[in-house]
Design a protein that fits this description.
Blueprint (H helix, E strand, L loop, with lengths): L1 E8 L5 H7 L3 H13 L3 E9 L2 E8 L2 H16 L3 H4 L4 E4 L1 H11 L11 H15 L5 H20 L2 H4 L3 H10 L4 H5 L3 E5 L3 H13 L3 E6 L2 H13 L6 E6 L3 H5 L4 E4 L10 H12 L6 H4 L21 H4 L10 H4 L4 H11 L5 H10 L4 H18 L21 E5 L16 E4 L1 H8 L7 H50 L5 H30 L6 H9 L4 H18 L3
Parallel strand pairs: 5-6, 5-8, 6-7, 8-9, 9-10
Antiparallel strand pairs: 1-3, 1-4, 2-3
Helix pairs in contact: 2-3, 5-7, 5-22, 6-7, 7-22, 18-20, 22-23, 22-24, 22-25
Length: about 575
């Protein structure tokens, strides 16, 4: 059996896809159950956070495992397999171990070095254990990942390289200002009472907000969090709990709003936020998109006409942010239409070419034609070209000072993205955090953490390979013990006159001879099995000594049962 992980994260997929693929708690449970019920997998665990969805499994066939896990992810996420496939990544055996250890250390996080991922990994393991989908491999893997993550944070300064997503988000809300100075004296509304919302509330309390209002679907959890905040040692922040139906009223009082719930729909609409701003300022929050100047006309092309162009030029030329030569133009086309478009674009200079010539080091019609032809090839596997075009930015339009600051840490989002366009509001969400973190500097400690990960992966692989041969060695020694017992019994029948002392000496002598003969080869085979590619030594040992495969399997099951019984809950 071998470890396989199939997943997608902020590194492989746009936030819009991650948002649609987000798994609810019930969906995660069903995904785990369906994975272990599938043919190639015997163990499964799901690691689902606000910026990653990963399915880990112990499989006996690589290609069948990839196909099955990808299909299950698509089914339970609600995103079609053809659309999801281009954003998936696959790690196998040692690479899968390396990936999880890197994730545990915060190297793969949106904010490098953040420590929240350790709690999320612990939750993923607990869920798999509760559902009995985690066996010996995944239990050992996830527990070791937690140890590696803790080691990285204790032995290096990786914590200096990054912060929690909450802290990073508040820094983005403060727009470069000192967070305690920015937050002091403000009133905060925290929607949700889970781990992320609790961290946000505690961080705001430490930053010096005057009051925190906690809203949650389960009122008792909101009350418990409010009580913890109120009783915090040395705290000066007051806290109270409200029900979810009071959120609209509390919005008009809150300076800062943090939302992180498990809701599948929007918690705060743009209209609700606009009404809250109006309640604070007495004026309706204007939509900056409505007041923005009309988009400039696209530059003329050297083609000069729509002859042989597969697009309706009259219909698209006036579309904001749309170029007949760009990726927006080819989104959704099939391969044949893309080829026709590439041939047409090849006669002129395009915006797509201009935007990429710095990276590609090329210019001219040939570059455009090749780029769109490459997109056509992608269509052959993905089925269509996804639309990556972002809405027209409104940051360049003069904005009034924010009256309300909103931080959306949920996936899928809690706050309508249209809030970005409202005057008097600053919204920071997962998508804007991803953009900001891409430029964040990494500490020198990251290299040290990477070395720790590499060492731990090698040690885990060696231990795994050595454990793989243990049942074979135990079966060999069991067979040797049976042979000794049979020979001693035969000797008793042939020499009945031996007294007990003589029989004991003979028995000890025979056992010592067998132990000495087996000692060197069994020790050496364990050493060899721990090396990369050493798993074949177990097969060689079984063949050389003609060991019964069922005996080896029985020993392996007994070892697994013992480990499970001794493993802490």
């Amino acid at each position: 059996m071998s470890l396989l992980v199939v997943g997608l994260s902020h590194r492989s997929a746009p936030v819009s896809v991650l948002e649609r693929a987000a798994l609810s708690a019930d969906a995660q449970v069903k995904l785990l159950q369906d994975t272990v019920a599938a043919d190639p997998a015997t163990e499964a665990a799901v690691l689902a956070t606000c910026n990653r969805i990963e399915l880990y499994a112990d499989v006996d066939k690589f290609h069948a495992g990839v196909a099955e896990l990808s299909t299950l992810l698509a089914q339970h996420s609600g995103v079609g397999l053809e659309e999801l496939t281009p954003f998936l990544y696959v790690h196998y055996e040692d690479r899968a171990v390396h990936h999880l250890f890197s994730v545990a250390c915060g190297l793969d996080s949106m904010v490098v070095g953040e420590g929240q991922i350790l709690g999320q990994i612990k939750d993923a393991l607990a869920r798999a254990q509760e559902l009995h989908t985690a066996g010996r491999l995944l239990n050992d893997l996830f527990q070791q990942a937690l140890r590696v993550g803790k080691r990285a944070h204790s032995e290096t300064g990786i914590d200096r390289a990054g912060q929690s997503l909450v802290t990073f988000g508040l820094e983005q809300l403060a727009a470069g200002a000192d967070v305690p100075g920015w937050a002091k004296g403000r009133t905060a509304l925290v929607i949700g009472a889970g781990s992320m919302s609790s961290l946000a509330a505690a961080t705001l309390a430490r930053a010096g907000v005057t009051e925190i209002v906690v809203a949650n679907r389960t009122f008792e959890r909101a009350e418990r969090l409010a009580q913890i905040l109120t009783e915090a040692e040395g705290g000066t922040t007051t806290a109270r709990a409200v029900r979810m139906d009071a959120v609209a009223a509390e919005l008009t009082r809150a300076d800062v709003v943090v939302s992180c719930t498990g809701a599948t729909g929007l918690v705060l609409t743009a209209d609700a936020v606009a009404e809250a701003v109006a309640g604070r300022t007495g004026e309706k929050a204007a939509d900056l998109a409505d007041s923005a100047a009309a988009p400039a006309a696209l530059p003329p092309t050297s083609v000069g006409s729509d002859e042989n162009c597969p697009l309706d030029l009259a219909a698209v030329q006036g579309t904001p942010g749309f170029s007949v030569h760009g990726e927006a133009a080819v989104a959704g086309m099939d391969a044949a239409t893309l080829e026709q478009h590439a041939a047409w674009v090849g006669e002129g200079t395009s915006l797509l070419e201009q935007g990429r010539e710095h990276d590609a080091g090329r210019s001219g019609p040939e570059a455009d034609t090749e780029l769109i032809a490459a997109l056509a090839q992608a269509v052959a596997t993905a089925g269509r070209v996804p639309e990556y075009r972002r809405p027209e930015p409104v940051a360049e339009i003069p904005r009034p000072a924010p009256a309300v600051f909103l931080l959306d840490l949920a996936m899928p989002r809690d706050i309508d993205a249209a809030v970005h366009r409202l005057a008097g509001v600053r919204l920071v969400d997962i998508e804007s955090l991803a953009d900001a973190s891409a430029d964040a500097p990494m500490a020198s400690d990251v290299d040290q953490v990477r070395r720790i990960v590499s060492d731990e992966v090698a040690a885990f692989g060696a231990a795994l390979r050595a454990a793989h041969i243990t049942p074979t060695v135990v079966a060999l020694r069991t067979m040797a013990a049976d042979v000794v017992a049979a020979e001693i019994a035969r000797l008793d029948g042939r020499l009945p006159g031996l007294d007990d002392r003589q029989r004991g000496e003979i028995r000890q002598t025979v056992h010592r001879v067998v132990d000495k003969l087996l000692h060197a080869p069994t020790v050496r085979v364990k050493q060899l099995a721990a090396e990369p590619g050493g798993t074949g030594y177990a097969d060689a040992l079984r063949t050389l000594f003609d060991l019964d495969p069922e005996t080896v399997a029985a020993v392996s099951r007994a070892v697994d049962n013992t480990d499970e019984k001794d493993r802490p809950a």
